[in-house]
UniProtKB/TrEMBL annotation:
Protein name, per record: VPS10 domain-containing receptor SorCS2
Organism: Etheostoma spectabile (orangethroat darter)
Gene Ontology terms: cellular component: dendritic spine; early endosome membrane; perikaryon; postsynaptic density membrane; recycling endosome membrane
UniProt-listed Pfam families: PKD, Sortilin-Vps10, Sortilin_C
Membrane topology: Single-pass type I membrane protein
Transmembrane segments: 651-671
SMART domains membership: PKD, VPS10
Subcellular localization, as worded in the UniProt entry: Cell membrane; Cell projection, Dendrite; Cell projection, Dendritic spine; Cytoplasmic vesicle membrane
Domain of life: Eukaryota
InterPro entries assigned to the protein according to its UniProt record, in alphabetical order: Ig-like_fold, PKD/Chitinase_dom, PKD_dom, PKD_dom_sf, Sortilin_C, Sortilin_N, VPS10, VPS10-sortilin
């Protein structure tokens, strides 16, 4: 599985790309495509890559501008980086020949095969300066770059070298790296040292780097930020821009070289040169090409009408004009022979082969794209012709136009069927849209006949397409969610609870038939929500205080939310209640109805508190502790203050009264959420009185207030004080109210 892919070059219906294989960390393999861009063949392995800031990766390969088919690349093998050049789009790669003398004319002891020229192939971070290698379309054959001589590329050595015959011969021009700018089709080469110190001189050459002239472009040294030329390849005017200090504004200095040339060039001022590779071969990419350049002694301007290409002549085809075809590799022992890979079936038909057509099995070779050779050797002529067989369908896919897999009832949907491989003309396609609609199509993927449909009802629909012919079959499936947009969501939660008590959160979504909703729960200040597919969630609150709870419901087409606040107390007892089945008979799942019921039942329960207070004032509440000591429960003196009350037993009675008050409000309100609580369906609210009382509700919403008030008649108006005063030593409050049936609604 490749880790990264980068496009290197695209021209003449061919793609050059660099691909990093799973086993490579700092290198890429270079591939070239066939004319259709479908099959790729490897042309160079282990091209070096460098990771830049912001995770950018630069690959050491450069297309030489001006002459088609010429590339430079840095290959890294066993940690050693060497520079290679190709003249035929990667079929053959060779190391660069070293110069014979240094910049001072002294002989160099660098001889092949142990010593070569190596270049840094880096792009400049600054767009206003050249990279380490500079070429230009209007100056064919002229290459100037930074590098070193030796057995490998050395990072810190950046001597400057130049060639004017497209890499066949090189000359050293500087000992340090310079920024380069070509003017007048390469007739003037400008160089400024790449340094962090301020400068006021530049160098220029009018004889392809053989001699250099120093020019003071400013009287005050500046930090050079970039070089710009005026529009047009023929221009002789450039601008140096920079700053005098890091706090100053930009300084722009224009340099005009037109005064250095007294006249325009004529035909007698040019000389021709012929392109050859490092071996002296004149036929490159199937043709002989000659170019012209200005004589070293001619001081004239090439101008706008200058044309560098002179003549082209096709050559007869040879071994060098063919590459290995897809599925074949070049032999390491015999570079002219291509052999089939173990996985490649020589007689396998191409993917676009349809029944009734003819295809040719490859001989293992194909002519290099853009190669212009004619006649001579034809390594493709012995290809065998075959009739296209009937191929089974493969790679069947079904999708929706617009990629929307969640739609509303009644929406227009257009299904698209695509088949990657196999015959299509004789294939039948059976389409099942999941709602009872079925159809059979012939030649569906060729005619592009649309499949349009509307789903009436919400639901999940399985769409299936089966493709079948005499050779085989294939199948594709997708699921469509048809749902109406959500209107609202109601969060149901008890407004009061105790610390670390289990709390049920329930989201009621409208419309109730909404399907496949996802719920996002935010509790307190937590920015990370909890996700559930169910509309309820059990949680606990570890801290006392006020807690905000927000729920969002989403079904792929819409999103709604609701927020509630819960008060968390340190000591709080929850007693769950259940109600008879007819409570919601005419008002199912209506939050407002439950809210009204909650208020009325709370009112009923709070009316019992005065009776409890009366019993306490009458000293009728007591219990025994160990040793037979009788403890009397009474109300605390309200004038004694908290501190005084805490010193006597009266504080416990006050705590009990507070607890009963909280219970009277909280125990009922939990009614609204009881139906979502997991566990036993028998829910009780306990007091010592074993008499069963029914908490009834009206069956007609219009009579709710009257019937609920009548419900008070089912609860005793007077509490038996002797019952509350339990002389048996059991807890003071053991039971309250029990429902008439076990259905927790």
């Amino acid at each position: 599985c490749p880790q990264d892919v980068q496009i290197v070059s695209t021209d003449d219906n061919q793609v050059f790309l660099a691909l990093q294989e799973w086993y490579q960390s700092d290198t890429f393999n270079l591939y070239q495509s066939d004319p259709q861009g479908v099959y790729y063949s490897i042309v160079l392995e282990n091209v070096r890559s460098t990771k830049q800031p912001e995770e950018n990766i630069l690959i050491d390969i450069l297309e030489v501008r001006g002459i088609r088919g010429v590339f430079l690349a840095n290959q890294k093998i066993d940690g050693k980086v060497t520079t290679l050049i190709t003249y035929n789009k990667g079929q053959n790669w060779e190391p660069l020949a070293p110069p014979t003398t240094d910049m001072n004319g002294k002989p160099i002891s660098c001889k092949a095969p142990h010593c070569h020229l190596h270049l840094h192939l880096r792009w400049a971070d600054n767009p206003y300066v050249s990279g380490t290698v500079h070429t230009k379309d209007s100056a064919p054959g002229l290459i100037m770059g930074a590098g070193n001589l030796g057995s490998k590329l050395v990072e810190y050595k950046e001597e400057m070298y130049i060639t004017s015959d497209c890499g066949k011969t090189w000359r050293q021009v500087f000992e340090e790296e310079h920024h380069i700018l070509y003017l007048d089709h390469g007739g003037v080469i400008v160089a400024i040292k790449d340094t962090s110190i301020p400068l006021k001189i530049l160098k220029f050459s009018i004889d392809e780097g053989r001699t250099w002239t120093v020019h003071n472009f400013t009287s005050t040294s500046v930090f050079v930020d970039g070089l710009l030329s005026e529009p047009g390849d023929e221009t002789l005017v450039m601008t140096v821009f920079g700053h005098i200090s890091y706090r100053s504004d930009w300084e722009l200095v224009k340099v005009d070289f037109r005064q250095s040339f007294p006249r325009q060039c004529t035909e007698s001022d040019y000389v021709s040169w012929q392109l050859t590779d490092l071996q002296g071969e004149k036929c490159i990419m199937g043709q002989e090409r000659s170019f012209r350049k200005r004589k070293d002694t001619a001081f004239c301007i090439k101008g706008k009408s200058y044309i560098s290409a002179l003549t082209t002549k096709p050559c007869q085809c040879t071994e060098q004009d063919f590459n290995c075809d897809y599925g074949f590799e070049r032999s390491h022992t015999d570079g002219n022979h291509c052999f089939a890979d173990f996985w490649h079936n020589l007689d396998s038909p191409p993917e676009d082969c349809h029944l009734g057509k003819i295809y040719e099995s490859s001989t293992g070779y194909r002519k290099i794209i853009s190669n212009m050779c004619e006649g001579g050797l034809n390594k493709q002529q012995s290809a065998t012709q075959h009739s296209c067989p009937l191929l089974p369908p493969k790679g069947l896919q079904v999708s929706i136009k617009g990629q929307m897999l969640a739609v509303a009832p009644g929406d227009d949907i257009t299904f698209i069927v695509h088949q990657e491989k196999g015959d299509t003309s004789s294939t039948k396609y059976q389409v099942d849209l999941g709602d009872g609609v079925r159809a059979i199509y012939q030649n569906l993927t060729v005619t592009d006949e649309p499949i349009q449909h509307r789903y009436k009802n919400p639901g999940i629909y399985k769409v299936t397409v089966k493709a079948e012919n005499m050779a085989g079959h294939d199948e594709a499936t997708m699921y469509i969610q048809v749902t109406a947009p959500l209107q609202e969501v109601h969060l149901e939660v008890a407004p009061i609870t105790g610390r670390n008590h289990e709390v049920n959160l329930t989201a009621i979504v409208l419309p109730t038939e909404a399907n496949l909703s996802v719920f996002y729960w935010w509790i307190g200040d937590n920015l990370q929500p909890m996700l559930t597919l169910q509309n309820s969630l059990l949680t606990r609150f570890p801290e006392t205080g006020e807690v905000s709870i927000t729920v969002q419901a989403s079904n792929g087409r819409s999103m709604v939310q609701d927020t509630r606040t819960v008060q968390v107390y340190d000591n709080f007892q929850v007693i769950r209640l259940s109600f008879s089945m007819n409570l919601d008979r005419f008002n199912p799942n209506i939050p407002e109805w439950r809210e009204d019921i909650g208020q009325m039942v709370t009112k009923i329960l709070t009316k019992r508190i005065p009776a409890i207070i009366q019993a306490l004032n009458s000293n009728n509440v007591s219990f025994k502790v160990r040793g037979g000591i009788q403890v009397l429960v009474m109300l605390a003196d309200p004038d004694a203050g908290f501190y005084g009350a805490a010193k006597g037993p009266g504080v416990w009675a006050l705590a009990v009264i507070i607890l009963i008050s909280i219970f009277a409000t909280g125990s009922f309100i939990l009614y609204k959420f009881k139906r979502k609580l997991p566990g036993s369906r028998n829910v009780y609210a306990q007091m010592h009185n074993e008499k069963e009382q029914e908490m009834t509700s009206p069956v007609n919403h219009s009579e709710d207030t009257q019937h609920i008030i009548q419900g008070e008649e089912f609860i005793d108006d007077d509490l038996d004080s002797q019952t509350l005063g339990n002389a048996g030593g059991s807890p003071a409050f053991r039971s309250l109210i029990r429902t008439t049936n076990n259905h927790c609604y």
